[in-house]
Amino acid sequence: MPQLNPSPWFFVMLLSWLTLSLIIQPKLLSFTPSNTPLNKTPMASKISPWTWPWT
């Protein structure tokens, strides 16, 4: 069964992870988010009971 032989696929996996972590990831992390989160105080929600028509 050729699937069990890791010899050709290990190099492919290693090369893809190195490409991702050394080339692509720094380029993606260099972008600044356009929608930065704000420090907002949480508002208390007003909860009203549901009126069931059959009770």
Automatic annotation (TrEMBL):
Belongs to the ATPase protein 8 family. GO terms for biological process: proton motive force-driven ATP synthesis. It is found in: Mitochondrion membrane. The chain crosses the membrane at residues 6-24. It is a single-pass membrane protein. One of its GO terms (cellular component) is proton-transporting ATP synthase complex. Keywords: ATP synthesis, CF(0), Hydrogen ion transport, Ion transport, Membrane, Mitochondrion, Transmembrane, Transmembrane helix, Transport. It comes from the Eukaryota. The gene is ATP8. This is ATP synthase complex subunit 8. Signal peptide: none annotated. InterPro entries: ATP8_metazoa, ATPase_protein_8. PANTHER family: ATP SYNTHASE PROTEIN 8.
